[in-house]
């Protein structure tokens, strides 16, 4: 199999960047960063438990959880009448690693071409 050329890698990295955009958006907000940190310390939390640990309102926390869920950084499970959220970052972390690996390949190719 032939190694990808610069144009192919640039097309791939562009696609990967688009796929990572929801992750970047989710991670950019300090409130969502705080929620992620809360979830690293607990197996799962419901909205009320997150609100107890935050100065934000229930509706604001729900909004932030929706964005984290869309970015596939958290998953939810309904138990009785409550929805519990837990961190599930393996997929997004792999997406970011793939994006960085492709970017590094492009940099290496361009460096080699310049020499």
TrEMBL record:
The keyword Membrane does not apply. The keyword Repeat does not apply. This is Metalloregulator ArsR/SmtB family transcription factor. Keywords: DNA-binding, Transcription, Transcription regulation. Residues 12-107 form the HTH arsR-type domain. SUPFAM superfamilies: Winged helix' DNA-binding domain. InterPro entries: ArsR-like_HTH, HTH_ArsR_DNA-bd_dom, HTH_MetalResp_TranReg, WH-like_DNA-bd_sf, WH_DNA-bd_sf. PROSITE patterns: HTH_ARSR_2.
